[in-house]
Amino acid sequence: MGAYGDWLIMFLAGGILVIWLLRAFYRWLHEPASVNRLKLGKGAELMANDENIIILEQAGYEVKSSKHLVPIYIELDGVPLGKGSRLYIDYIAEMDNSMYIVKTARDRMPMDWTASGVRDRLLVYALLLPECAGILFVDAKDKVIRKITFDIAE
After folding, report:
1. Is the pLDDT of residue 79 over 80?
2. Among 23, 40, 75, 82, which one has the highest count of C-beta atoms within 10 angstroms of its own C-beta?
3. HSE-CB for 16 with a 13 A CA cutoff
4. pLDDT at residue 119 in the model
């Protein structure tokens, strides 16, 4: 090949490289911002005689893990607010390839079963783990499981 052939090959290779870089930049620019997803650890050991687990298993759920602690660091006007706070997830359960966050009833924190009460108490968990199909609220005293889902309109 002559001098023109070498330049032609270099020009084509450079053009392909520029097109490839422009497409990669365009894809990066237009893809949605990634969200830092929460990754739960293994949690605490499951107890065989736990009434909440027994109720969930009788209803057909498979309890995968228990007692997850999610630390939350809080700043107020740029100053750390104490040691922060934490959220507790009692269990993670699964049924029909759908994962659910499980919260249990507490005597000292009765549930307000109004739309605003459920929102104030449980929406944070649905937002924390958006890949979950919903939240199960287990009341072992009444032997009731309530499934809560949130559909946030656009």
Report:
1. yes
2. 40
3. 5
4. 93
Task: Please write down the HEC assignment for all residues of the chain.
Answer: CCHHHHHHHHHHHHHHHHHHHHHHHHHHHHCCCCCCCCCCCCCECCCCCCHHHHHHHHCCCEEEEEEEEEEECCEECCEECCCCEEEEEEEEEEECCEEEEEEECECCECCCCCHHHHHHHHHHHHHHCCCCCEEEEEECCCCEEEEECCCCCC
CATH number for the domain whose boundaries are 51-148:
3.40.1350
Mean pLDDT of the chain: 86
Domain ranges of the chain: 1-31, 51-148
Largest CA distance in the chain: 89
Comparing C-alpha atoms, which of 147, 144, 46, 140 is closest to residue 101? 147
Distances (CA, A) of 12 to 5, 6, 18, 24: 11, 10, 10, 18
**pTM here?**
0.69
- Residues 25 and 111: their CA atoms lie apart, in Å, by 49
